[in-house]
Amino acid sequence: MHSSPELLLEARGIRKSYHKDKIELPILRGIDVGFVTGEMSALVGRSGSGKSTLMHLLATLDQPDSGEVWFDGARIDNQSRARRDHYRNSQIGIIFQFYHLLPELSAIENVLAPAMIRRSVLGYLRDRKSLRLRAEAMLDRVGLLTRSHHQPSEMSGGEMQRVAIARSLMSDPKLLLADEPTGNLDTETGATILSLLRELNREDELTIVMITHDDSIAETADRCYRMCDGLLEDNASDAAKNSRSNSAKLETVAA
């Protein structure tokens, strides 16, 4: 059984519960959803709806109790930890609401961190010149090349999120998962980050799945799915209709 050719990422029958003492807390109750290659999709829902838990499962940061996760035609949730780590480090980029930058490192060192992790010491030393050039190119892409030697404490929230985006692009991923990417930013800065994500989606054909609680942000995506109490509502928006109104909606978010 294989995924549809146009689906880059797919969740099938995903269920997940957590346990506190002897009490079982169901978080996801059977999620079936697919994300189309080259699209920017949004998962929207209130806090506690299960959207971040689903993102963690899609990123193989956790494993479902039952169900399957497929990426690029192959099932990934049942792979060994080493293979899941490799998938996460080489095929996808992840950005979070709180950036997760290493405070003692400069911007460029934070961007280089995934490459350092992926390679052995000797491998990194061998490739360090080309890797640094790529890190500089990624910082330039997000408009922060001149801030490459600044540490996170010397940056604004928007700058830190742009460094996080540059870091997520370091491995040239097929997929970007963004968990509340504007949730810790003011409205104007958040709109700038959304515009950057849309630019990456359109110009690089990067598939993006964005988690948000904000309807106005979710509606800027090509396709929007709503989560409620661990279930997915069947209200995916029509991509063609949505794409015609994206620019106006981004302006509304920035207003």
Give start-end ranges of low-pLDDT stretches.
Answer: 235-251
Q: Report strand %.
A: 25-35%
- Strand element count: 10
From the alpha carbons, calculate the radius of gyration and give it in angstroms.
18 Å
DSSP summary: helix tally:
8
Q: What proportion of the residues is helical, as a percent range?
A: 25-40%
Principal-axis shape equals globular
Tell me the major beta sheet.
Answer: 6 strands, mixed
Oligomer: single chain
Known CATH architecture of one domain: 3-Layer(aba) Sandwich
N to C succession of SSEs: EEEHEEHEHHHEHEHEEH
CATH class of one domain: Alpha Beta
Lateral strand order in the biggest sheet: 6-7-8-3-9-10
CATH fold-level topology of one domain: Rossmann fold
> What is the mean pLDDT?
86
Query: SS-based structural class?
Result: alpha/beta
Note the gap between the termini: 47 Å
**CATH homologous superfamily placement of one domain:** P-loop containing nucleotide triphosphate hydrolases
InterPro entries: AAA+_ATPase, ABC_transporter-like_ATP-bd, ABC_transporter-like_CS, ABC_transpr_LolD-like, MacB-like_ATP-bd, P-loop_NTPase
Organism: Rhodopirellula europaea 6C
Keywords: ATP-binding, Lipoprotein, Nucleotide-binding, Transport
Protein name: Lipoprotein releasing system ATP-binding protein LolD
Could you explain how this protein is built, in words?
Residues 9-254 form the ABC transporter domain. It contains 8 helices and 10 strands. Mean pLDDT is 86; it is low at 235-251. The longest helix is centred in the middle third of the chain and has 21 residues, at 121-141. Helix 3 packs across helix 4 (121-141). Helix content is 40%, strand content 25%. The protein has a domain at 1-91 and 214-255: Rossmann fold (3-Layer(aba) Sandwich), CATH 3.40.50. A hairpin with a 2-residue loop joins strand 1 (7-20) and strand 2 (23-36). With 255 residues, the chain is α/β, with parallel strands linked by helices. The strands form 2 sheets. It has a 6-stranded mixed beta sheet.
